[in-house]
Design a protein that fits this description.
The protein is mostly beta strands and about 180 residues long. The protein has one helix spanning about 5-10, and strands spanning about 15-25, 25-40, 45-55, 60-70, 75-85, 90-100, 105-115, 115-125, 125-130, 135, 145-150, 155-160, 160-165, 170-175. Strand 1 and strand 2 form a beta hairpin.
């Protein structure tokens, strides 16, 4: 075995093949999906990947190429993709970006196809009333904890990573806890 073959075998690549048949009142649909995913880096907080897929059904044959990334340090993620349907001849270019702060969830996306461009921007926030206190926070979609120390300016850690800082009341809200 040569060195190039050994390096190729060590690539952290995933390959998925899926055959699906859906039966409904409106008819049957068969689908074949072949997808390959490969991370471009495997160290640090920032991650990037590339993926290619082909999905054939009774009415379309879509090829897609994606380049995506995320950064755990600043809670951002993005994706750029190119799609082409060989049956209809329609091609599309789309992109997506998302990010979070302790009080906001932000998303932006865009798509262009057949001379038409669409864009969307989403900003989400919320108020939480708990234990007699009001907190401005990004949307809560799972478990959370209220940390009460009685002292302002203390760093709060979750899994040995920064999760917040106590406010003037000595409280911090920790979101996205994993329920076990």
């Amino acid at each position: 075995r040569d060195e190039a073959q050994e390096q190729f075998e060590r690539l952290p690549m995933s390959l998925v093949v899926s055959l699906t048949r859906v039966r409904s009142a409106s008819g049957d649909q068969k689908s074949l999906l072949v997808s390959a995913f490969m991370p471009l880096d495997t160290a640090g907080a920032a991650r990037q990947s590339v993926a290619a897929s082909y999905n054939a059904s009774d009415t379309s044959q879509v090829s897609r190429l994606d380049y995506a990334g995320n950064n755990a340090l600043n809670n951002t993620g993005w994706d750029v993709g190119l799609s082409r349907d060989a049956v209809t001849g329609i091609s599309a270019l789309d992109g997506f970006w998302s990010g979070t702060t302790p009080r906001l969830e932000l998303q932006a996306s865009g798509r262009t196809t057949q001379g038409q461009t669409d864009a969307q921007f989403v900003l989400r926030s919320g108020l939480l009333l708990t234990q007699g206190s009001v907190f401005a926070t990004r949307p809560i979609t799972g478990a959370f904890a209220l940390v009460a120390t009685g002292q302002e300016g203390l760093n709060v850690l979750q899994d040995n990573r920064p999760a917040g800082r106590t406010d003037a009341r000595g409280m911090a809200l920790v979101l996205s806890l994993i329920h076990i």
